[in-house]
Automatic annotation (TrEMBL), chain A:
GO terms for molecular function: unfolded protein binding. Residues 1-24 are annotated as: Disordered. It holds the Pfam family Vma22_CCDC115. One of its GO terms (biological process) is vacuolar proton-transporting V-type ATPase complex assembly. Residues 1-11 have a biased composition (Polar residues). It comes from the Eukaryota. The lineage of its organism: Eukaryota, Viridiplantae, Streptophyta, Embryophyta, Tracheophyta. This is Vacuolar ATPase assembly protein VMA22. It comes from Carya illinoinensis.
From TrEMBL, chain B:
Keywords: Hydrogen ion transport, Ion transport, Transport. The keyword Nucleotidyltransferase does not apply. GO terms for molecular function: proton-transporting ATPase activity, rotational mechanism. This is V-type proton ATPase subunit. Belongs to the V-ATPase V0D/AC39 subunit family. InterPro entries: ATPase_V0-cplx_csu/dsu, ATPase_V0-cplx_dsu. One of its GO terms (cellular component) is proton-transporting V-type ATPase, V0 domain. It comes from Carya illinoinensis. It comes from the Eukaryota. It holds the Pfam family vATP-synt_AC39.
Length: 217, 305
């Protein structure tokens, strides 16, 4: 009877150990998958950034062709002091898995308008956070959301800020210049996403390396 | 390398490699200016006045460049380097001290050929981006109308050919003003005031263009005019990217036709405009090469003859 009890408890202990090993392996595999996912996202975003910038530079050249070199050149850039229309915020999350900073782009937000971070962001590529969202625009003509009136007001203000920043080249500018502005805006958003994804990639890479070293040890 | 075998070759041969797009454009423009001055110094009245009229557009662009750059606290020397050489005049640097249009006129422009064009836009309002834009377009409108009247006075084949070319220019400007002002603070009345008082679109087309809120409405207006129907038929709905090229192609076609007739001054205007188109082509090609996007060369190159 005692022998049977001992055998049963040793079987239970073995089963528990096996379960723990399986759990440990599952976590290792999860980390590897997370690392590979972030690597894939990183490479995809780099490619997207490259093509967006190429498109932006060509659109700028096209705008120059259309409006003339005297209307689009570096000598017209405004050197007067003014507050930044776009800023980058760094926040820290208390996530146990990914204890890392998170970058957020605050576009077209100025103290005059009072439009804070919460209204102007949308994140296309969601990371492991409840972080703010970034807005992505790929067309000059805005797609007006169907739901509420507030987003329409925000879109109008954003459009005004965009027009204001282009006004150094004149108030009546070609649609090509506006398209170039949108392309560079998208490229800036992509850059911030790349920074976030890179942080995730480095963090998961560290974890995988530690686990491998632990296994070898 | 290819330009070395052309008349632009001597202007570029001493430039260090790699050649930048701005250098190519600058040197080709220098060649154009020399050719223009060669024609001007051998011209008598009224051809010399006709040739001078061709440069007033560049003068207006230079004035606006200096005023805008000064508003943005840029150095005057830097701005002068960016001015088009065909539009230079003696007191151009003094533009930097003017605070409003009245001062612009009184201090500088009263002694230039642009003086008569200022009567419609002299105000004491401070110069800002919107006022400068309105000033630019008002000046250009006055210039085009004055040039048109001058050509009508010359009469004959010059009047006939230049009337067609300048009307096309006025109509193109009306379309560009309409499209570029969509979504801006420019009111309908202000937009209408910037359209010239001649051209195929005057006056009924202008009435309709003044109220257009998007590109498709502009297309709807322009398609009622047969000469412009062919231009807009090349574009898909909602598209405006290829509109410039379509207009340039139509302009080049009309400029080439100017050489079919004899004994008129329109050939000089056509020559200068076609040379400017050639330089625009070179600028686009060199941009595509510099950006490693050679497949996009045909997006904006306009073939001449």
């Amino acid at each position: 009877m005692e022998e049977q009890d001992q055998m049963q408890s040793s079987i239970e202990v073995e089963e528990l150990e096996e379960q723990q090993q399986r759990e440990g392996k599952r976590l290792e595999e999860e980390n590897v998958v997370r690392f590979l996912d972030s690597l894939d996202s990183y490479v995809t975003l780099l490619d997207s950034l490259s093509s967006t910038l190429r498109q932006g530079w060509l659109e700028l050249a096209s705008a120059r062709q259309s409006m003339g070199a005297s209307r689009i050149n570096g000598a017209l850039l405004d050197l007067k002091f003014h507050s930044a229309a776009t800023s980058l915020q760094v926040t820290h999350h208390d996530d146990e898995i990914l204890n890392q900073p998170h970058f957020t782009l605050c576009k077209w937000a100025s103290s005059k308008n009072g439009y804070g971070d919460e209204k102007l962001r949308e994140n296309k590529l969601q990371t492991n956070s409840d972080g703010p969202q970034l807005r992505h625009r790929s067309q000059f003509a805005e797609k007006i959301p169907e739901t509420k009136g507030a987003p329409l007001i925000v879109d109008d203000q954003v459009q005004k800020e965009r027009t204001k920043s282009l006004s150094m080249f004149g108030t009546l500018v070609s649609p090509k210049l506006r398209a170039a502005q949108l392309s560079f805006e998208t490229a800036l958003e992509t850059l911030v996403e790349i920074a976030n994804v890179r942080l995730t990639m480095l963090s998961t890479s560290d974890q995988v390396r530690k686990e491998l070293e632990g296994t070898e040890g | 390398m290819h330009l070395s075998a052309t008349e632009y070759g001597p202007y570029l041969q001493n430039e260090p490699s790699p050649l930048h797009t701005t250098t190519i454009v600058e040197k080709c423009t220098l060649k154009l200016v020399e050719d223009y001055k060669h024609m001007l110094c051998q011209a008598t009245e009224p051809l010399s006045t006709f040739l001078e009229y061709i440069t007033y557009g560049h003068m207006i662009d230079n004035v606006v460049l200096i005023v805008t750059g000064t508003l943005h606290e840029r150095d005057v020397q830097e701005l002068l380097e960016k001015c088009h050489p065909l539009g230079m005049f003696d007191s151009i640097a003094t533009l930097a001290v003017a605070q409003n249009m009245r001062e612009l006129y009184r201090l500088v422009l009263v002694d230039t050929p642009l003086a008569p064009y200022f009567s419609e836009c002299i105000t004491s309002e401070d110069l800002d981006d919107m006022n400068i834009e309105i000033m630019r377009n008002t000046l250009y409108k006055a210039y085009l109308e004055d040039f048109y009247r001058f050509c009508q006075k010359l009469g004959g084949a010059t009047a006939e050919i230049m009337s067609d070319l300048l009307s096309f220019e006025a109509d193109r400007r009306a379309v560009n003003i309409s499209i570029n002002s969509i979504g801006t603070e420019l009111t309908r009345d202000d937009r209408k005031k910037l359209y010239s008082n001649f051209g195929l679109l005057h006056p009924y087309g202008h009435e309709e263009l003044a109220v257009c809120e998007d590109i498709d409405q502009v297309r709807g207006v322009m398609e009622k005019y047969p000469p412009y129907q062919s231009i807009f038929s090349k574009l898909s709905y909602g598209e405006s990217q290829m509109l410039d090229k379509a207009f340039y192609e139509e302009e080049v076609k009309r400029l080439c036709l100017a050489f079919e007739q004899q004994f008129h001054y329109g050939v000089f205007f056509a020559y200068m405009r076609l040379r400017e188109q050639e330089i625009r082509n070179l600028m686009w090609i060199s941009e595509c090469v510099a950006q490693n996007q050679k497949s996009r060369v045909h997006d904006s190159v306009v073939f001449i003859f």
